[in-house]
Design brief:
This protein folds into 2 domains: 217 residues, Zn peptidases (Aminopeptidase, 3-Layer(aba) Sandwich); 96 residues, Alpha-Beta Plaits. The chain has 317 residues and is an alpha/beta fold. It is built from 7 helices and 13 strands. It binds zinc ion. The site of zinc ion (ZN) has 6 residues, from loops.
């Protein structure tokens, strides 16, 4: 059965590594999945946002993920959750449930943001996209929350001067101020928070001119809303937007009580679907993701499909 799951992941990847939102490549992935859903005895519908549903009966319980991908994608991000849900639905042929493939998760997510009906439970299996489970030596982890996030920028103003003729004491170097700030951002985060400066703009950005103006992009995250706000205050920036953490339900914890608990640092469709629970599958290769080396093992995927099936069984009995 799992051999089939891996073959299907390969088939989705073979359409195109980059399946952009609402592109012909994403359409083709949805068509492929629709065929597999029909084979599992599910009835195909699409909503106004283009999300694909394979339903059986009065489906109040959904399972799935997304089929779009980033340009540098691997095989598992998103597609694993859809393929696993189809396998589980195939094993629970007498149960009312729906498998969903959301549109455009990597862009928004535009699909799950625009769902028209809401389930009593939504179950999403997803590759971890990080190194924690691999380091713990654990195949699966229960997601307790999708972390909150704040994004913004800070501008440092200095004065453009000649790099050769302006004595050090007479300079106002915006990049030196920004560099100190970047270290401060790094040091402001800790065990339960992360903070990153991933982009800077230097003006005039010339090798022989003292930098006059620097814009620094800041990304701050935490699973705890108060810690997130404290982190923003400690760093000292005005967020352009701030998104509170989204707590996840216990549908997977109920069948996997001993599994490690994780907070997702990445956003997922599960943020926007009510009554969502998430299960992470161990990422191998050090947790690399959004990269062709992204990997989960056949054994771990089989375990995840088993847990998803058990959770759906429990919820649709
Ligand atoms: Zn994803």
């Amino acid at each position: 059965m799992t051999g089939r799951a891996l073959e299907r992941l390969e088939a989705v990847y073979a359409i195109a590594q980059h399946r952009a939102a609402y592109s012909p490549e994403e359409d083709a992935a949805h068509e492929l999945a629709a065929g597999w859903m029909r084979d599992a005895g599910l009835e195909i519908t699409r909503d106004g946002a283009g999300n694909l549903f394979g339903s059986r009966g009065e489906a109040r319980v959904w399972a799935g993920s997304h089929l779009d991908s980033v340009p540098t994608a691997g095989r598992f991000d998103g597609a694993l959750g859809v393929v696993a849900a189809i396998e589980a639905a195939d094993r629970l042929r007498d149960r009312p449930l729906a498998v969903v493939a959301f549109r455009a998760e990597e862009t928004g997510p535009l699909g799950s943001m625009r769902i028209e009906s809401t389930p009593d439970a939504y179950l999403e299996v997803h590759i971890e996209q990080g190194p924690v489970l691999e380091r713990l030596g654990e195949p699966l982890g229960v997601v307790t929350a999708i972390g909150g996030q704040a994004r913004g920028s800070k501008v440092f103003e200095g004065r453009a001067d000649h790099a050769g003729t302006t004595p050090m004491a007479m300079r106002s170097d915006a990049l030196v101020d920004a560099a100190r700030f970047i270290l401060h951002v790094h040091d402001s985060a800790g065990d339960d928070t992360v903070a990153t400066v991933g982009a800077i703009e230097v003006e005039p950005n010339a090798g022989n001119v003292v930098p006059a103006r620097v814009t620094v992009a800041i990304d701050a995250r935490s699973a705890d809303p108060d810690r997130l706000r404290k982190l923003v205050a400690d760093i000292g920036f005005e967020p352009r937007w701030i998104r509170d953490p989204t707590p996840m339900g216990d549908a997977f914890a109920a069948v996997l009580p001993e599994a490690p608990r994780l907070v997702s640092g990445a956003g997922h469709d599960a943020m926007f679907v009510p009554n969502a629970s998430m299960l992470f599958v161990r990422s191998l290769n050090g947790g690399v993701s959004h990269h062709p080396d992204e990997l989960s093992s056949e054994e771990d995927i089989e375990l995840a499909i088993g847990v998803l099936t058990a959770a759906l069984d429990r919820l649709t009995r």
